Amino acid sequence: MRFHTRKWVKPEDLNANGTLFGGKVLAWIDEEAALYTIIQLESKKVVTKYMSEINFMSTAVEGDIVEIGIEVVKFGKSSLNLDCEVRNKMTRETIVTVDNIIMVNLGDNGKPKPHGKRKIEYVKDRLAKKEQETNPNA
User: What is the 3-class SS of the chain, one letter each residue?
Assistant: First the structure.
């Protein structure tokens, strides 16, 4: 799993127990899944359709740094299935896992739209491909 984003746990991220609020972590996960999907599908119109069981395993406290990992499980016709793990960067303890997040690509009409993608693509590879297409003699 690749860990793409880090978050610093601040006082406004805490619950009444002084630990990281689960709702805050879920918001971070949802945002990261959306950003990852937007980049993979090259489409700004994506929505979260489904999140499977959410397994809270440990927590974090103010000042900790957590990192969010996303991994593609499957490319659907108009969707992308992801796994997610959030862990404490300092202790390497897993804070939460989500085994299945389904993100859906939307057309202008707000309905699911096929995206045509079948494998993970990295931005650096896309840029190299575009450079080669625009400048084949380079």
Answer: CEEEEEEECCHHHECCCCEECHHHHHHHHHHHHHHHHHHHHCCCCEEEEEECCEEECCCCECCCEEEEEEEEEEECCCEEEEEEEEEECCCCCEEEEEEEEEEEEECCCCCECCCCCCCCCCHHHHHHHHHHHHCCCC
- The region that residue 110 occupies, defined by phi over 0 for left and psi between -120 and 50 for alpha, beta otherwise, is left
Inform me whether the pLDDT recorded for 138 exceeds 80. no
Q: How far is CA 25 from CA 6, 39, 83, 100, 138, in A?
A: 12, 21, 15, 16, 46
Q: Tell me: the pLDDT tens digits for 19-42?
A: 999 999 999 999 999 999 999 999
Please write the tens of the pLDDT for every residue from 61-101: 999 999 999 999 999 999 999 999 999 998 999 999 999 99
Encoding tokens for residue 136? Answer: 């084949």
Name all domains of the chain by residue range, CATH numbers in brackets. Answer: 2-134 (3.10.129.10)
